[in-house]
Queue: 3 jobs
Job 1
Amino acid sequence: MDYKIAIAKGDGIGPEIVESAMEVLDVIGKIKGHKFIYKEAPVGGFAYDLYGDPLPLESIKTCKESDSVLFGAVGGPKWDNLPGDKRAETAILGLRKNLETFANLRPGYLFKSLKDASPLKESIIGDGFDILVVRELTGGIYFGEKGYKETENGKAAFDIEIYSEMEIERIARIGFEMAMKRDKKLTSVDKSNVLESSRLWRKVVEEVSKDYKEVSLNHMYIDNAAMQVIRDPKQFDVILTSNIFGDILSDEISMITGSIGMLASASIGKDKKGIFEPIHGSAPDITGKGIANPIATILSAAMMLKYSFGLEEESKMIEDGVAKTLEEGYRTSDIRGDGDWIKTGEMTEKIIKTIQKM
Ligand code: NAI
Ligand code: MG
């Protein structure tokens, strides 16, 4: 079959890692007889430089007309001083909003061969952990009213955290659905001891849980959760949380899996179309050196095959290819611990060779 994929490479290491993922997709396509048809959608600072807009209408159109979107990363020091609405990062927020991808799935699991790369002790890791963070993506403080006002202490800035019952309910349902497919355990993370929006969050999650009696639900405050993922990550299956808490918590979880360069994500909504992207940013400090870890983006492409196209077997081939390559001891320089240090292109090649041999 043919699948149309919008390619939003973005800035920094974005183009390097997205190209790696496209190479892997093409190999899968060849083996399994699929054709992936790519159309570029300029985003971020790259698009700003070309068109004066980090998310041009034409790019939104390309993404809307495609079956799915593969996204690299946006932003970098070159564009840091632009006004808020022109910043490169508005591209990803705007795209999520435009495609109504309100749920962000961020799997955080430890590859068996990377136990030594986790900063956690062997006694904590045991036989590994497998967490799925389900993060609300189009609401909360990132999208609430923001601005400046005069106070008795002078100029002040504000950002409002706001969630409607509808927004909480639809993300909670995704969380419970995911838990049903996994270990049937859901931890909802909030700060309901302090925040009104969190108290509503907790109430709605409790309501939704009545439709999922098989899933065991517990609630945890964000500060405690930040500690618990380090103390005992094995206690978690699905973590359901808000936009800002999920952003921070999933970066933290990435580190206990060995590197931020390993973690994929899927942003999904009502239909099968999604935005698939690594959780990391554009890594300006290593851009152009050819050393970026392409695995997070390659695994994001694998998630796309599964969620958007229903290609479970093809998705698994990529995951297995990555796992086996890591088992052979190959690592990019961001992964802690011992191994054979290789660059972006070599890692991509090793993964492709492994897939071809399977
Ligand atoms: P970052 O994730 O880009 O980098 C953090 C650290 O991790 C850096 O030392 C970087 O070299 C390293 N790193 C990240 N990905 C890597 C990979 N694949 N391989 C090897 N090392 C990797 O976060 P930072 O530095 O806070 O942000 C840089 C820029 O990216 C900023 O402009 C930020 O706004 C933007 N950003 C964009 C995101 C997106 O497009 N979705 C998400 C997060 C940040
Ligand atoms: Mg982040």
Note: The chain has two domains: 1-106+259-358, 119-256.
Job 2
Amino acid sequence: MSAARFVIVAPRVITCDPARTRPGDPLGVVEDGAVLVEDGVIRAVGARAELLGSEAGGVRVHAVEGVVTPGLVDAHTHAPWMGSRDAEYAVRLAGGDYEAIAAAGGGIVSTMRAVRASSVEALSATLVERLRRMATLGVTTVEAKSGYGLDEASERRQLEAVAEAGRDASLPRLVPTYLALHAVPPEAHGDRSAYARQVAERWLPAIAAAGLCRYVDAYVDRSAFSVEDTRPLLARARDLGLGVRLHAGQFADVGAAELAAEFGAASADHLEQVGPAGIEALAARGVAAALLPLASFTLRQAPPPVDALRAAGVPLVVASDANPGTAPTESLPLAMAFAARLYGLTVAEVLLGATREAARTLGLEASVGVLRPGLQADLVAWDLPHENALIQPWGCPRTRMVLRGGALLSG
Ligand code: NIG
Ligand code: FE
């Protein structure tokens, strides 16, 4: 893939381009299609015969056998984490409750201890390995949250590791999010509001000034932070020009979806527990719902109200939530399979939710998530003949070739 100009031809090119979608073809599929790439950018997409016919001589052609899609975009991960929660898994398999384990000083705070003990170099090395595995699964863009440092220096180290990995073009693209309110660290002695104030007034401006994050996130839930704890943080984020995404309604509807709408968040994530008012608020502000089926599977929860979200016109995103507690995996394709099987999303909803709609929530709609001229040549050639095969729970890499900006990430 090193040549500056080449064409990929495939029996089925899934463009996800709204300019190509029609009733009955929500994915804008080009059969017997071709994608012309030049200097890392998509120059043309179309029928193979037309595209090759207009290319008078000399262009290198890579014929692939399976379906071709845009590179997958994972819009919710906690990728820069360290350590292992294997002891907790054993407790949970024996019936232990996730929130109770966290309340007793396990959960997020146990990963905090591993992160606090890690240098930027160690964080970055672990993150890079994780990102390489994600790339083998077809993922070319990853949103990466901090949130396991729980003090300013450690949160910064997590985000510096993301910045470091983000400079490496042989890895998926990275979008850094400061997960500012995730849990209360032991030294705050349970004083949530004082902790939240310090994060909003001191840590966030410093982290933003260092250019370490594009989004701010908070875990707004019954055993986490309240709407009142979180509002000053989001107001400050808005003043600093940062985007907002929220962990909303994973365990209880405490008004997080309405809060996400109030601040015009890019997405409200989880939403296993959201009522009609929250759904209406999301729809009115065009806030996407980022669905995280691996987390609800791990926690044995019922799915979010997908039919109501869809009926209200809330854009649907599917993400991995890769984290050591509730989604101990790195596989967006597995999340896609579960979104179809457990949540009842259509194949098209799943694919758009892991490409175009995900990119939109990351502010990257002008560069990735769709196969269209002018966008980055981030694409995947799958060892699978059809998109219906793509959303099955293979649990192993089924990519033949994964490109970021026209260059090979995996394959
Ligand atoms: O998205 N719920 C909050 N945060 C993560 C889990 C964090 C953890 O258990 O380490 C989530 O599910
Ligand atoms: Fe999460």
Note: The chain has two domains: 5-71+369-410, 72-361.
Job 3
Amino acid sequence: ASTLKEAVAEAIPKKQERLKALKAKHSNTSLGDIKLDNLLGGMRGLKVMLWEGSVLDAERGIAFHGKSIPDCEKELPSAKDLGLKGKEMLPESMLWLLLTGEVPTADQVRGLSAELASKGKLPSYVEKIIDSFPKTLHPMTQFAAATAALNHDSAFSAAYTKGIKKAEYWSPTFDDSIDLIAKLPAVAARIYYNVHGKGDGKQAIDPNLDLIGNFSNMLGYGDSVGMTDFLRLYIAIHGDHEGGNVSAHTSHLVGSALSDPFLSYSAALLGLAGPLHGLANQEVLVWFKGMQESIGQEASDQQIEKYLEDTLASGRVVPGYGHAVLRQPDPRFSALSRFYEQTPELRDQPLVKMVQQVSKIAPVVLGRSNKIKNPFPNVDAASGAGLTAYGMTEMNFYTVVFGVSRALGALPNLVMARALGLPIERPKSMSIEALEKSLK
Ligand code: NMX
Ligand code: MLT
């Protein structure tokens, strides 16, 4: 296949066959029973959703079609492989892997980058919508609203109105998904310019650059190879975290009503904007700032320990720590830490040093609580420090960067859900009275 769409078209019949075989043999096989704890505990652990891109293991962390982050770093075409400045894997490579299960060649990635660049410019009505938002409106609210507004030109919506057959749904869903992934950097950069005055607000998209090379230019960091490469790594590893997390699940749920990819992903962004989910990367910086103001930049381990204890005692969460599934340090945290250690200009940055220091103390303090199931750092504990060190100090923009990334996983799932003909999601809910009666 030379294009991603051709590769997806080749992958789909095989998936359909495998699913058909599973259904024929196992439609009534149990995948586990449901306890009251599952119903009241946010459905933790219930296997109730099909999601192809990645699987999260509590101990080993995320695997994208079976590949760990270090595997991806070794195997996926990188900036260097495409002759670009930098060396990190490209989010386009990750997108290809997530959609097809295959590692693309450098040429395939180059073609995909060019396609994304050709579709990256925003229609002027969306620019006007973004420009009309008050600077004080949170960037994530702006991001979700602008993303929803892009559905004006949805190929899926138009095809559905014309009466497209169910077997063909995946094709305009794919077209919308690529269109949206191409435009998210421009939406984000326009918001950054309006709210924080950085970048030049224009969408000068270079057809020979990768998605993140262009994103970095639009944000005003194009001269920094370090920042551009950091963004590539950041956006590649935040792309997918199986299907049950709030943003991914939201896009799946909303998409199951056949809402188009723009609407489905807008809804996902609104979930990502919550402090227990994507906004945690902003919260971490707020927490760090509070700590620096209270105990200073050169705080001792004992002072940090006390600050962590005080946070817990005040009834707040320590942002960047804990996880609903993981029971070990998040390999995405480790990947970012490795990047910091291997990058001389970052290694000694005060915030980077503090991230590393806190990551050794917090697990001990959180581990003393008998209710916190995972005392280890998640990705959000590390991600803001790199952005800050490269000059992006505006922490209310961090979740937008996460939001540019999560589309890489959420949108392929929508394509696959339509290719596999998955139905509208509609679980059963129970009232207390109904539970009392059925559990007597
Ligand atoms: N600080 C303080 N308390 C915590 C923390 C933490 N970092 N993590 C869990 N707990 C508490 C949790 O609030 C709950 O308390 P209660 O019973 O009083 O409601 C108790 O420990 C049990 O929670 P868990 O079963 O360990 O975690 P759960 O699966 O419910 O939640 C998170 C997972 C990620 C929401 C939770 O660990 C948290 O709030 N962490 C801080 C926010 C954060 O970093 N979120 C980012 C997640 C990654 N992402 O990018 O989305
Ligand atoms: C994510 O990346 O979505 C978070 O780690 C949250 C999760 O997986 O539950």
Note: The chain has one domain: 1-440.
